[in-house]
């Protein structure tokens, strides 16, 4: 590498363009969203907020309105995000989009990251004890090795 190449710096061209965060309404996912929002603001990146609506065939078979419940969760998350961005809009400016996917969390987050061309994926740590044995979505995303993944406790 020449000395000229080593000293050249391109302002504004480095860093992520899309930071994706998976949210499900849990405390850890909301902390992950706050962390990802800060990263997106500092990097001037788009924050892609992704909610995965679970498909529960057993619940539907029992007559539970699963689709309606997950739609309500998505609407609640959108309202919460809009409220949070409205409170800080004079201080911080973050470009963001909300996306919903249906399916299991791991495969849906992988699909979302690919479709959105995410440069980084942020998720909250699992709050379920069984994931220490089976493996959480976060661990599976890290093991996929396709994007930098940050797991927020």
Automatic annotation (TrEMBL):
InterPro entries in UniProt: Rossmann-like_a/b/a_fold, Universal_stress_UspA, UspA
A Pfam entry, by short name: Usp
Start and end residues of each UspA domain: 17-153
Record-linked PANTHER family: STRESS RESPONSE PROTEIN NHAX, UNIVERSAL STRESS PROTEIN UP12
Family membership noted in the UniProt record: Belongs to the universal stress protein A family.
Protein name (record): Universal stress protein
Organism listed in the record: Streptomyces mesophilus
């Amino acid at each position: 590498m020449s000395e000229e190449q080593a000293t050249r710096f391109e302002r504004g061209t480095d860093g992520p363009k899309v930071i994706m965060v998976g949210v499900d309404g849990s405390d850890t996912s909301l902390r992950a969203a706050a962390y990802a929002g800060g990263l997106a603001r500092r990097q001037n990146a788009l924050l892609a907020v992704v909610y995965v609506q679970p498909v529960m065939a057993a619940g539907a078979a029992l007559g539970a309105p699963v689709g309606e419940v997950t739609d309500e969760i998505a609407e609640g998350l959108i309202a919460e995000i809009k409220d949070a961005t409205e409170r800080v809009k004079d201080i911080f400016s973050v470009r963001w989009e909300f996306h919903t996917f249906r399916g299991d969390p791991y495969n849906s987050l992988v699909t979302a990251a690919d479709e959105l061309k995410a440069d980084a994926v942020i998720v909250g740590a699992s709050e379920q004890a069984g994931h220490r044995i089976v493996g959480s979505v976060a661990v599976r995303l890290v093991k996929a090795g396709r994007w930098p993944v940050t797991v927020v406790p």
